[in-house]
Amino acid sequence: GGGGISSDGSSTHQRPVRTLEQLDNTPVLAVAMSAAAENDVAVGHQSGALGVADVSASSPPRRLPARAAEVQCLAWMPPAVDAVDARSAIGILAVGSRERAVTLWTWDGERTSLLTTAALPRCPPHLAESQRGRLWVALAWAGHRRLGESSDDLSGDATESQTRVNDETFARLVVASHGGELLWCDVRVDDGRETTSGRQETLPNVHFSKFAGDGHSKTVFGISVRGNLAVTTSLDRSLVLWDVGKLTRRWSVAGLGGFAYHAAVDPEDPRRVAVACGDGSVRAHVLAETPNDDDHTHEVLTHDVADAGASTVLWRGLPQTKATRLAWRPADGPAAVALGDEAGAEPASACLAVGLEDGR
């Protein structure tokens, strides 16, 4: 599309708040709303143009000095649970681009600074030539953790610097790489504050590591994180669940009736995942509980659809178009109340919105 449009969901009838000015004439490929500042939105173009705008203000989007490489995915670091005031926190924006790198930017509402650029690992030699050029750098944040806290939040092969006891807070970033590989890295939250305030002299180093276990065999296009779990969709027509704390694969589901364009987790039942499939249908998979992983940290569990639980075709689709985006009605919070009945009651049953390729 040309520019991004924000809608006001606080009233009974949604209305456009503002149409953002275009950064250039190329299509917008990625849009991300900040979780820390509700009016901040990041927009990325096919040309590589990247900007951040305050939709409540009249000023044009602030253009970031990004490289001319197609912006493929945007994700704001979520605010820490124990943050005193999320609105005053420094925002960190992760950008996945066609230059085979992840760039981290800071944003304080007025100023933006480059935090670091981390190149993806080299393409594995076993990939065919056609796969080498088919890279989509999808990414998603997986919450915060304090290093030195032991639990299941850290992998068994953590480095010495990761296991020392301290008060530093890190956010984990999950990134798709070559040939379906899934990577992760930990980003120190204070790096954003120091960079924006000008106190940091050198850019922080970000190192990627691989998740354990075989995952996808082709390009990953979507990553959805809920709690300590991540679901990925790929060109190989499979759905894979990952444990973000233990950095291992839990299970995979194949036979989705085509490429999985998008997957959305039901907020009322985290075991229920809706998938927009390449054959035009929307399917819901109720995922089976896995065995206790305490003694099987690196065990790889693979299930067929029948073994993974009930699979239901929610919608068979319409001719000449495909379902490419899904969104469950919120289960709680202000958004759920706003979408409830006239008395303000929350919805009694799950409701799923479907976005089609033709714009409907």
Automatic annotation (TrEMBL):
Alphabetical keyword list: Repeat, WD repeat
GO biological process: spliceosomal snRNP assembly
InterPro entries to which the protein is assigned, alphabetical: Gemin-5, WD40/YVTN_repeat-like_dom_sf, WD40_repeat_CS, WD40_repeat_dom_sf, WD40_rpt
Keyword Repeat (UniProt): yes
Superkingdom of origin organism: Eukaryota
Region of interest (Disordered), ranges: 1-22
Gene Ontology molecular function terms on file: mRNA 3'-UTR binding
Gene3D superfamilies xref list: YVTN repeat-like/Quinoprotein amine dehydrogenase
Coiled coil: none
GO cellular component: nucleus; SMN complex
PANTHER family, alphabetized: GEM-ASSOCIATED PROTEIN 5
Protein name, UniProt field: Uncharacterized protein
Source organism per UniProt: Micromonas pusilla (Picoplanktonic green alga)
